[in-house]
Amino acid sequence: MKNALTLTLLLSSALLLAPTSSAWACATCACGDPTLMSMGTEQPFSGRLRLSSTLRGWGHTVGTEGVDALRLREARMDLAVAYAPLPWLFLSATLPLQAREVRHASLARDRGWGLGDVELAAKVFLFQDKAFSADHLFSVLGGVKLPTAPVLRGPGGAQLTLDSQLGSGSVDPLAGFAYQHFRGSWSFLASATGFLPTRGIQGFRAGASLRTTLAAQYQPAARWALRLGFDSRLEAAADTAGEHQGHTDHDRHEHTGGFIGYASPDVLFTPAMDVVVAAGVRVPVINQLRGRVSPTPIAMLSVAYDL
Fold first, then answer.
1. 255 by DSSP, 3-state: which?
2. Is residue 3 helix, strand or coil?
3. What is the CATH topology of the domain spanning 2-306?
């Protein structure tokens, strides 16, 4: 696995260094819009192939410090590929590589790293006001998260707690929609995606959730742009075998579900043709999660490259 992570880092670096002269045509020329877009928000055209690597660092603390607090920290790299076989269809796959540490109230620590749960999705563009350089785009999304992460075990062979696992062990369908508007130097995005988790490891089932994004982007120059968004998650309480409880034991049921909203500023720039780099942070500004859950800001850095 160590060799696999090393290879992943090398491939991610190659996205920045890949020669753009080998591309058949620049993405801006093909779609007719010079707006810099992060992975998953690009305009479609037939044959578009996009690779990306996104690195995130995040965490949260559940419970009361000095009493029953559980602290989780994770670094995650998502490797993604998206292909448009038709001008109205995008197919995508995302493979996460994760490193996670959980510190329990007893000060015991669990550490795990490896592959996470793969996500497959298809985006269908139902409305586009113009075939070239569209001003309005409306799309729907359907997909599934698959249980590809291994079940992590401790030195004695016992399964680690649910918080320490890299995946849920469940098959989770997802569906959503998005609207995008392009107006000169400005672009806007509104999207909503629903997740309906099934039962997975140790009979655990995460709560159904709705995740939304509202964002505005201003691009004063061809090579860089500023983006400000608001991301939110509304989630039902989790359950195990039909009884509500938290991720690790029966007395944590009050720490699942609720609502959280993040302010999401980003900077996007293009160091070379067909390469888009984005850096930003997700800052929790509304925390209505049930129980005592204290999330950290989420740092993000991504590179996307059109072949």
1. helix
2. helix
3. Porin (2.40.160)
> DSSP H helical segments within the chain, as ranges?
2-17, 27-31
Tally the residues of the chain. 307
pLDDT tens, residue by residue, 155-199? 888 888 888 889 999 999 999 999 999 999 999 999 999 999 999
Where does residue 233 rank: exposed (0-12), middle (13-18), buried (19+ CB within 10 A)?
middle
Alpha carbons within 13 angstroms on the beta-carbon side of residue 113 total 12
Name 29's Cβ contacts closer than 8 Å, sequence gap at least 6.
none
- The secondary structure element, H or E, covering residue 151 is none
Identify whether the C-beta of residue 304 lies closer than 8 Å to the C-beta of residue 38: yes
Could you tell me whether strands 298-306 and 275-289 are parallel, antiparallel, or unpaired per DSSP bridges? antiparallel
Contact (Cβ atoms closer than 8 angstroms) between residue 88 and residue 96: no
Q: What is the DSSP string of 98-111?
A: EEEEEE-TTS-EEE
229 contact partners, CB below 8 Å, separation of at least 6: 189, 213, 214, 215, 216, 263, 264, 265, 266
- In terms of Cβ atoms closer than 10 Å to its own Cβ (0-12, 13-18, 19+), residue 291 is middle
Q: For 130-160, how does the pLDDT look when each residue is reduced to its tens digit (9 = 90+)? A: 877 889 999 999 999 999 999 988 888 888 8
Structure tokens belonging to residue 249 = 């034991």
Question: What is the rounded CA–CA span in Å between residue 11 and residue 34?
Answer: 26
Q: How many CB atoms lie within 10 A of CB 104?
A: 17
